[in-house]
Amino acid sequence: MRKLLKPNAISPEVIEAVKKDRMSHALNELVFKYNISYQNISMICKGIDRQKTVINYRQENIYSQG
Fold this sequence. Notes:
Protein name: Mor transcription activator domain-containing protein
Mean pLDDT: 72
Strand content: under 5%
Largest sheet: none
Distance between the termini: 36 Å
């Protein structure tokens, strides 16, 4: 059963928009405060994603071997 939202509840769309705005604010801070380029940030993020993929793959193999 779905919970009814209160009349003054914040919609999930607004929450997501705020999160994205905070993320972009954090990225801008990295770029201007620490002089890290967007290209370097995207490379770092890709590296993190790759590590997560490897970890997930290993966990799946461990579970599948039982």
